[in-house]
Amino acid sequence: MEPTTQELMVGKIVSISELNVAVLINDEKVKYHDMLYTYNKGKKIQFEVAEEEGNIVSTIPFQSVIGLKKGLPVYKEDSGLEIEYSDAILGKVFDSYGNLIDQNVIENPNKRNVYSRNLTLEEISLNGGILWTGIKVLDFFAPMQKGFKMGLLGGAGVGKTVLIKELIHNVYTGLNSNSVFVGVGERSREGKELYDEMKEADLLDKMAIVFGQMGENSSARSKAVFSGLTLAEYLRDEKHQDVLLFIDNIYRYVQAISEVNAELSRVPIENGYPANINSAVSNVEERINSTEKGSITSFQAIYIPADDTTDQAVQTITTHLDGQIVLDRKVAEKGLYPAVDVFNTTSKLIDIDKVGERHYRLVEEALRYYSRYRELEEIIAVLGIEELSQADTNVFYRTRKLRNYFTQPMFVAENYTGIPGEFVKIDDILDDVENIITGKYDDYDESRFMFIGKFNG
Amino acid sequence: MSQFVEGLVNAKLRNMKQMNNVYEIGHVSMVKDYILEVEGLENVGFYERVVIANHSVGYVTAISKNIVKVALLQRTAEIYVGDEVVTTGFDFCAMYSKACLGHIVDIFGEDRLIGEKFENLRPCMIETPAIPIMERSEVSRPFYTGIAGIDLIYPIGYGQRQLIIGDKKTGKTQIAIDTIVNQKQRNVICIYVAVNKTKKNIRDLYDDLMKKGAMEYTLILAAFNDDEPPVSYFTPYAGLSIAEMYMREGNDVLVVIDDLKSHADIHREISLLSGKVPGRDAYPPDIFYTHSRMLEKGCQHMNGGSITLLPIVETRGGDITDYISTNIISITDGQLVLSKKNFEKGLKPAINYGLSVSRLGGAVQEKNMKKLGAVVRRKFLSYLETSEVYQLANTDEMSPEMQQALKDGQAIQERLLQYKFSPRTPDEIMNDFYEIIEE
Predict the structure, then answer these.
(1) Among A96, A378, A416, which would you mutate to test the B interface (most chain B Cβ atoms within 10 Å of its Cβ)?
(2) Which of B19, B278, B321, B436 is deepest in the core (most CB within 10 A)?
(3) For the ranges A106-110, A278-282, A378-382, B188-192, which has the lowest average pLDDT?
(4) Chain A: residue nearest B331 by CA?
(5) Within a domain: A136
């Protein structure tokens, strides 16, 4: 493609590095988030304006800049970054920049800018019913509500993605609503698998997918979430639906903006994060809310770098959440999946007024058992089990049963466990937990509680 | 006469100008180790190959208002401020010819054993665009390493990226070598990428593979630790470009990258030297992307070809939760953790079965192997966990169920032992473990 006369030339390239191209602007007006482009050996390369200083603007290139030269003319697009805004989004796969990547074509596209306003305090609505996921450990320790933001935190390789896929499987089949899946900086293989699985299960026409995966450059990974949000907002605001939003993985968004930040030579804070990390995260999270007319319920996977839960990015994201599920390597090491750390797994719903007294008391009691067990483990390592008092022996064996009971065969993990998945009802969970704690199941061997649904003796 | 010559020269010059065949010349203004600053290059492209003082080669890493930055790739003599830098009009590329297979080569297409370049070298882009999501297909064909602990418990499939991670001297490279040797007659092209290795290491590896008859289908793409750091940095990317070329022709390729921790350190060194902002542990903020775009090349392509990747990471004190390790674990499709303790106890391969993971699991196993593997894994993991807790307990007082579980666990552990260069076929593995489960 060669430039035509209708294109608006705005300036010339003056400097180039991998993620930062500076453009000397002539008399045209250029603002933040404007989209510019140039041609390199016949290929179009787009840039987004990130900084302005006098007549020089710093831009972030969307494509590879290999071969780009100083002095190339730069043109301006009519509008900034846009994505399709209509019913046509369902069943389609987009890249971070709103382009279809699944060989589909949308006729007469109806596009909209991906940077939208946040909701006001007045517009936000908090009401919603409890949403059972059928996963024992989640429903018991961290129940979910419509309109909630639930975080799934975990280090590398402890099972975040499997859990998110199980949630998609369970919540989707139970709740008749549309959803948006945003893949940010995760594996392309998993992305394709999700697509194939949705297609096979005939659920693809209820989901819109945006991928900016880990093989793509920083700008792609930093934009995917905005494109995805715009799709979810369409379903909420225009179609008045209850939307499910899955983001895997929101940490990668912060990671991507750190990379961009470094290329713009801005001074970072600890661990290389950008100084504006708070507003960058708020700009995304504040858009994920519910109104009187429609709701967005979101599950967000959060990667914990270097298993460091005090990490700045992780902390910044979790302030926005209504609940969190924390996955722990020590639990995974024992082969107990989902590898949930029950002490740090919480939800705003764990409240007498919300889940009822029985559930609340059982959670308290279970946690008491777990924390005593943790202490007993150290004692046993030195003295052996025989030295424990009767009460402690009970706590020890019952907690081991409890711990085993909270493993679960998952539908999407049949390949690892060889056992078909199970959806467990909350009443059964409460009964079983009560029976284990009160000692009704004392006579059963602990191995009987591993990877089962509800306990059948 | 002189007029005639002048006419000739002018005509030549005119021709050259019309064909844009005149190369720009700039001058070195700063030398900082292997990073140069060059003045006077106005039309050079980003990533363009440049020649310095007629003897050394570099490429453009940044273009700014008045200078361009050049990273050196080959330095054959000293470089002085003021030396001439000539552009070439070509993007910097690796050179490769299919005749390289079976040899130790570098990214410039030179046989490192005899120091000569191969003939018919073709340029090979160092970084190709990511393989699109929609071109990938499911990873499902079992890839046999010949090691029971892997093929049965944490299996690998064609197109999978499985990390091998552990301390020094725990047998990381050996697992990779065993895997390469086991590909004989399986029609897999193997590429061993050495980053920052000693020449002795490479010689050893070459001799081992030669002895086992595995060099026929193996390429050793090596950057030594005395090469210029940018060369070490590019070597794995070049290796994967070569792999991608074979894959797009429909071949199955295995790539071993030994190791990525060194690669991360080299990237840190180059970034800091070029004045980039450091992040966690002084690694540049793009360290994740550095490895993610590399390892994302591993895939099962819809045309039938595949790239299976075995990256290796070295840890310290058995800590797999440091920054680089967790980054890479979060990219790969699973990890084989090797433990020093097991190695010292003689439990070889020294796999820590508790910490190892295969995210694909049974999806890449043949039906019977999958069934058996799931049972063995569950039994063995619960054995490892319970044997720890009940170490001090009296075995006689245990329930018969528990006693049997402990006995089975021990039997599994014994049968997982396997020495180097002693591959087992899937059938052998099935036979060895069926007995335990049957009992």
Answers:
(1) A416
(2) B436
(3) A378-382
(4) A187
(5) yes
In this prediction the ipTM stands at 0.85
Collapsing DSSP to helix, strand or coil, A407 comes out as: coil
CB A265 within 8 Å of CB A147: no
Q: Are residues A250 and A388 in the same domain?
A: no
All structural domains of chain B with their residue ranges? 2-91, 95-366, 369-438
With H, G, I as helix, E, B as strand and everything else as coil, classify residue A409.
coil
Q: Give pLDDT, residue A307.
A: 83
Is residue B15 predicted with pLDDT exceeding 70?
no
Q: Which residues from B are below 8 Å from A265, CB to CB?
A: 277
Q: Domain ends where: A17, A46, A76? A: A76
B317 band by pLDDT with thresholds 50, 70 and 90: very high
| Half-sphere exposure in the Cβ direction for B35 (13 Å, CA) | 14
Q: Domain range holding A153? A: 82-349
What confidence tens digit (pLDDT) does each residue in A364-412 have? 999 999 999 999 988 887 777 788 899 999 999 999 999 999 999 988 8
pLDDT in tens, B84-138: 999 988 889 999 999 999 999 999 999 999 999 998 999 999 988 889 999 999 9
- Contact A64/B127, CB-based, under 8 Å? yes
- Residue B24, SS3? coil
Q: Which of B213, B230, B212, B232 is nearest to B222 (CA)?
A: B232
Q: Which two tokens stand for residue B110?
A: 């030179």
- Contact of A105 with chain B, judged by CB distance below 8 Å, is answered with no
Give pLDDT tens digits for A315-327: 999 999 999 999 9
Residue A329 to chain B, least CA–CA distance (Å)? 8
Assess contact for B176 and B400: CB atoms under 8 A.
no
Tens-place pLDDT, residues B156-210: 999 999 999 999 999 999 999 999 999 999 999 999 999 988 999 999 999 999 9
pTM equals: 0.88
Interface test with B, best of A192, A273, A400 (most B CBs within 10 A): A192
Q: Which of A308, A324, A349 is the last residue of a domain?
A: A349
Q: Which fold has domain B95-366?
A: Rossmann fold (3.40.50)
Tell me whether residue B359 is one of the annotated catalytic residues.
yes
Quick one: CA dihedral B188, B191, B192, B193, positive or negative?
A: negative
Architecture of domain B2-91: Beta Barrel (2.40)
- Residue B91 contacts A, CB cutoff 8 Å: yes
Within this chain, do residues A31 and A51 fall inside the same structural domain, yes or no? yes
Q: Which residue's structure tokens are 């994505």? A: A83
Which chain A residues are Cβ-neighbours of B136 within 8 angstroms?
A: 188-189, 192
Q: Is B35 helix (H, G, I), strand (E, B) or coil?
A: strand
User: Are A65 and B46 an interchain contact pair (Cβ–Cβ within 8 Å)?
Assistant: yes
DSSP for B194-243, please give it: EEEE-HHHHHHHHHHHHHTT-GGGEEEEEEETTS-HHHHHHHHHHHHHHH
Spell out the residues 6+ positions from residue A361 whose beta carbon is closer than 8 angstroms to its own.
none
> How far apart are the C-alpha atoms of B4 and B12, rounded to whole Å?
12
- Mark whether A285 is an active-site residue: no
Decide: B248 and B267 in contact? Cβ < 8 Å: no
Tokens linked to B199:
């020449």
Residue count of chain A, please give it: 457
Contacts of B1 (CB under 8 A, 6+ apart): none
Residues 6 or more apart whose Cβ sits within 8 Å of residue B139: A189, B157, B158, B159, B160, B299, B300, B306, B333, B360, B363, B364
Q: Which of B286, B325, B401 lies at the smallest CB-CB distance from A259?
A: B286
Active-site annotation holds for A28: no
Contact B278 A195 (CB under 8 A): no
Specify whether A140 is located in the same domain as A284: yes
Q: Which two tokens stand for residue B184?
A: 């004989």
Q: C-alpha angle with apex B80: B79 to B84, nearest 5 degrees?
A: 85
